[in-house]
Amino acid sequence: MPLNKDIKKVLVIGSGPIVIGQAAEFDYAGTQACRALREDGIEIVLVNSNPATIMTDKAMADKIYIEPLNLTTIKRIIEKEKPDSILSGFGGQTGLTLSMQLAKEGFLESHNVRLLGASPETIDKAEDRQMFKDTMEKNGQPCIPSKVGTTVEDAEAFALEIGYPVIIRPAFTLGGSGGGIVNNQEELREVAANGLALSPITQILVEKSIAGWKEIEFEVMRDSKGNTITVCSMENLDPVGVHTGDSIVIAPTVTLSDKEYQMLRSAALKIIDELGVEGGCNCQFALHPTSFEYAVIEVNPRVSRSSALASKATGYPIAKVATKIAIGYTLDEIKNAVTGKTYAAFEPALDYVVVKFPKWPFDKFVYAKRDLGTQMKATGEVMSIADTFEMALMKAVRGAEISLDTLNLPKFATESEEELWHIATHATDERLFAVYELLKRGVSVEKMHQETMIDCWFLSKILNLLNYERELAKGQLTQELYTQGKKLGYPDSTIARLSGCEVKFQRKPTFKMVDTCAGEFAAHTPYFYATYDTEEAGGEDEALEFIGENREKQTVIVLGSGPIRIGQGFEFDYASVHCVMSLRQLGYEVVIINNNPETVSTDFDTGDRLYFEPLSPEDVLDIINIEKPIGVVVAFGGQTAIKLTKTLAAHNIPILGSSADTIDMAEDRERFDELLERSGIKRPKGHTIMTTEEALTAARDLGYPVLMRPSYVLGGQNMIIAYCDEDIQE
C-alpha cells in the first residue's frame, strides 16, 4: 500500500530538554522522521523546546516552533498550521503523552487531525498498566503476578498478599521514573507515594520481584497489513532488577538456546500484532534462568533508546521505517538504504556482536547514591562492534571515557572483599569492575553466578580477559601473545604497561562492514568497525574497497563527542553534523568517527564513511592510517575530541582549525595564565599545582575561600570552592 495521498502536512512533536532517561535518541528519531517525510514531499511542522538539537534546525522542517511542549501550545500550533496528521511516537514519553491527551479530549477529531503510527487504543494498551495486563492475559502471554493500584493502601495490601520484595512501576512515566524494588512496608510507602505523584494518571503497578531472571529485549516492526519482523534481539548482562538503560547489553542474544529464542521471538511478534502497533515497538521479557518460564515485563509502543541502539547495531533505520509505515507504506515497499537491493521486510542478520555500555553522571554527583535499580540513572551510552564479546567489551569500556582501558578499577585493588561482594550483588555502576576484582582474587565463575545471577557465559568471557592479563604479567611478550591481546581488544599502550615490555610488533587492524544481512548482499553505505584478523585467517579489509586507490576528492575526518553526559550533551552532535554538511558541500569526502548510538552523527548516511569506534588514541590513529586525510577536525567533538589533539600533533597529523598548541594554551591552566600575563589582562591570583601539599600551600598563600579548577575538563567537572584545608584535601 503506497503513500496515503491524504497526508500532506504533518506535525512532529519533539521530546524537549535532555533529562535522565530521555536523551539524544529522540533527536535522532525525530530527525530521521523528518527526512523520511521530506522524501515523500510532505510538509513538516515541528515543535520542540530544545535549541541544542538537529531536529530544531531550519534544514529539517518547513516550519519550526521552539516552544514549550504543553497542551496549550500544541493546540495553538494545530489551530494556526492546520496539519492533517500528527506523529506521536518520536518524541519520547513527552510526545506520546501529549498526543494521547489531545486524542482523548477529542481535540484531534474536532480539528480533523489523525494520529499516525500507534492509535490511542494501542498506546493505552501498552502504557496503562491494567489494560496492558488484561491484554497480555487475554493473548495468553504470561505476566508477572501484579496488581494495579491508585492509592498507597492498595499497594500495601497487595504486597502483603504476594510477599516482599515487590517492584513498583508507575504508569505513563519514562525510564522507570518513580518506581523501584522495595523490601518492606516502610520502603513501599515512600516509593508508592512518589510513583503515584509522578504518574500522569495517578496509577502504579505493584509487581512480584523476579530479580535474577534473564532480561531479553526484542525490537520489532509491524505495518498496517500486519506484516511483522524482528529487527534485533538484545540481552542484558545484568539480570532483571537493573533498568535496561543502566545495564550492559549485548546484541544479538548469546546465552539462549534456539528453543528459548524462538519462543520469545514468537511472543514479541504476537504482542505487536495483538496491540496493533504500526511502526516500531520494543518488547521486554524476563526469562527464568533454568526453565522455559518467561514473563512479559513491558512494551514501548514508540521508538526508545533501545530502538536507537538496535538501529545502529544492525544498520536498519527503525525510526525511518516506522515513519514510512505511519504514512501508508508496507514493509515490502520500503527499500533498505544500506544494500539498495533488499527491502525493509528482510530481517537483519548480524555476523558480529555489539555491546552497549551506559554512561552515568556519578563523576559530577559525587555524593549521589550509586545503586542501580528499576529507575534509569544513565545519561547516555556508548556502543561497540567486534567479532568477539571480549573485544567489544574492551572497546566499550575504553570508549565510555571513565579513564579505564581494562576492567581493573584502581581503587578496588585495596577494597575489602565484603564491600566488593556488596557492589557485585546489589549492583552499582561499578559492578562489572567489582566482579572482575573478585574473580582476580580467586572466586570461581560458578560461585559468582550463584551470588549475582550473571550468566556463566558472560563470566567466563570476563575470565578470559583476566587469564590473558596474568600471561602478560609474566613479562614475556611474544608475537603470539601480542596477537591474542589484539584479538581480545587491548591497545598497544595497555599491552606494554601490563607486560612491562616495549611493543615491537606491527599492528594491522582490519575494518569490517555493517551491512544488515551478514554479507549476503553487497552494501552501498560504508559503515565500519575495527577487528583484528590475521591475514592467514583471510582477514580482508572491507574499508579499502570503498576508499579506493585513486581518490578524486580529498578526505577530512570529523571526530564526534562520544557518550552524552552532564556538561556535554547533543549540542556537539549538532555541531559535528553541521561541520560534515558544510565540508561535503565544499567537495570533500567526510569520514566520521564516533561511538554514541543515540546520535545523528552515527547515522550511516550522515557522512561519506562512518567508523563506529572509541574516540581513543590508538583507535583513531588506525583509522587515520587507512583513510589518509588532509586533516582532522576536533573543534566540534567537545572535550572528547579536544583531548586527542596532543596525540594528533605528536603524529604530525594536521588539525583543521585551531592548532594543537593553541588548544593547549587555552586548556592548560599554567599556559593560559602566562598568556594573560603577557597580554596584560587582569585575572584572579592563582597557582598551578600538581600535589595535595602544593594545593594546601597555595590555598593558604591566597587566603580562603579559593576556587580549584582542573585542566582539560568539561562543564566544571570536579571544580569546587574550598573554604578550609579539609575541602582542599577532599
Overall pLDDT metric: 89
Secondary structure tally: strands: 25
Major beta sheet, strand line-up: 14-13-10-11-12-15-16
* Radius of gyration computed on alpha carbons: 26 Å
Describe the structure.
With about 725 residues, the chain is α/β, with parallel strands linked by helices. It is built from 27 helices and 25 strands. The strands form five sheets. A seven-stranded antiparallel sheet has the order 14-13-10-11-12-15-16, sandwiched between helices. Helix 13 crosses helix 14 and helix 15 (about 445-450) crosses helix 16 (about 455-470). It is globular. The termini are far apart. The model has no long low-confidence stretch (mean pLDDT about 90).
Secondary-structure map with pairings?
Layout: E1 9-13, H1 25-39, E2 43-47, E3 63-65, H2 71-81, E4 85-87, H3 92-104, H4 107-110, E5 114-116, H5 120-127, H6 129-138, E6 146-149, H7 152-162, E7 166-170, E8 180-182, H8 185-198, E9 204-208, E10 214-222, E11 228-236, E12 249-251, H9 258-275, E13 279-287, E14 294-300, H10 305-314, H11 318-326, E15 353-359, E16 380-386, H12 389-399, H13 417-426, H14 431-440, H15 445-452, H16 456-472, H17 479-488, H18 492-499, E17 510-513, E18 527-531, H19 542-547, E19 555-559, H20 571-585, E20 589-594, E21 609-612, H21 617-627, E22 631-633, H22 638-642, H23 645-650, E23 655-656, H24 660-667, H25 669-679, H26 692-702, E24 706-708, E25 720-722, H27 725-729
Parallel strand pairs: 1-2, 1-4, 2-3, 4-5, 18-21, 19-20, 19-22, 20-21, 22-23
Antiparallel strand pairs: 6-9, 7-8, 7-9, 10-11, 10-13, 11-12, 12-15, 13-14, 15-16, 17-18, 24-25
Helix pairs in contact: 1-11, 5-6, 7-8, 13-14, 15-16, 16-17, 24-25
